[in-house]
Amino acid sequence: MQFVRECYSRGEKCGQKLAGLRHGSLSQAMRSELTKAFELQRTGDPARVEEALKLLQNTVFSFSMTVCGHREDAEDTMQDVLLKAIPYLGRFESPTALTTWLYKVARNRCWMSRRKSKFAPREHLSLEELMPHPAEMERLAAAVAMDASPERASIEGQTTAQLQKAILKVPPGYRLVLVLHDVEELSSVEIARILNIKEGNVRVRLHRARLFVRKELSQLPIRPTAPAESEPALSIPNRTEGRKSKVPRTNRCKHIFANLSDYLDGALDDTLCEELERHMSGCKPCEAFLADLRTSIERMHSLPRQQPDLNAGSETRAPLVQKVQALLSTDKT
């Protein structure tokens, strides 16, 4: 089973490779950005304070755009959060404290101004609804036999705009967790602190949101590309309707699906990990589904960060630099 071997070869802990990938360059970039802002604003130097405010602006704007999807709302959120942050900047004792506060305030402000989505998403996602139906299990089994997955081709082939649209369809409570974890690269512990919920609830919401996005992307038409002359076009349909399944979806598969995100993030204990892999070794559709889910998650990890208008950002920062300097001077006296 090639995919499982990639994640669990040479005695490595279950999911360790992908977990390491998730906490790689993207996570480090986010951490270094906020750490740099924390250090710069403490200097009191006008140029460095402005650079710190710019880093904070960019973080809040990108987060707000991904969560709410409207530039005007994201710009309003960016400005309001920055204004609220000024009195507190000198009081944060660590970059972690700044990060938690920043996302908590940005979440509240963005949610207050968000507009009703035309997609009218439901507030609750059930695992049963997000599991592949029997016809899809049959198609996944056929894809494994042909070493090709139309679902994975569809997920890989969607544009950034289509990915953003799929994320915006996720119900709000699940979407926040998804964006904070897979786009902003925060840990489950940090997200639980920001949203004031239990870490276990974070993991449940994250997994169901990932399954939702995976399902949305896999159902979109595959963008046409010119096939190589030596390669015949795939004949597996993107959807299968009106056919009796030959691959039943069992309760055992449901139990496996409930643990896939923990497996991919390296959060399963060894016993559950081995149990999942035993199932995968005898269930090719589940193996294919896992690979598709991983592709979907990797797409979200690489989602480009959106930037505010440069002129608007500069105009917002200018009057705030002096306020930060004054507050820092007061704290030192």
Task: Summarize the topology.
Elements (H helix, E strand, L loop, with lengths): L1 H7 L7 H7 L2 H17 L4 H23 L2 H15 L9 H19 L13 H4 L3 H13 L3 H8 L2 H9 L3 H12 L4 H8 L3 H21 L31 H7 L2 H5 L5 H12 L2 H18 L8 H23 L1
What distinguishing features does this structure have?
single chain; 333 residues; mainly alpha; 2 domains; 18 helices; 68% helix
Number of helices: 18
Shape: elongated
Q: Sheet bearing the most strands, described?
A: none
Question: In whole angstroms, how far apart are the ends?
Answer: 65 Å
Radius of gyration: 22 Å
Total strand count, please?
0
Please, what is the average pLDDT?
75
Helix content: 55-70%
Main structural class: mainly alpha
**Can you tell me the number of structural domains?**
2
Sequence of secondary-structure elements: HHHHHHHHHHHHHHHHHH
Beta-strand percentage range = under 5%
In terms of per-residue confidence, which ranges show pLDDT below 50 for 5 or more consecutive residues?
Answer: 1-12, 15-28, 117-121, 224-249
Can you offer a commentary on this structure?
The structure is a single chain. The chain is an all-alpha fold. It has 2 domains: 13-115 and 305-332, no CATH class; 127-224 and 236-301, no CATH class. Helices cover 68% and strands 0% of the residues. The chain contains 18 helices and no strands. It has helices at 2-8, 16-22, 25-41, 46-68, 71-85, 95-113, 127-130, 134-146, 150-157, 160-168, 172-183, 188-195, 199-219, 251-257, 260-264, 270-281, 284-301, 310-332. The protein is elongated, with a radius of gyration of 22 Å.
In short:
The protein is mainly α.
